[in-house]
Amino acid sequence: MSITPLYAGLLALLYLALSYRIVVMRGPGGPSLGDGGNPILLRRIRGHGNFAEYTPFILLMIAMLELGRQPGWLIHALGATLLIARLLHGYALSFTEAFKFGRWWGTALTFLLLLVCGGLCVYQALRAQALFGPA
Question: What are phi and psi for residue 23, nearest 5 degrees?
Answer without folding.
Answer: -55, -45
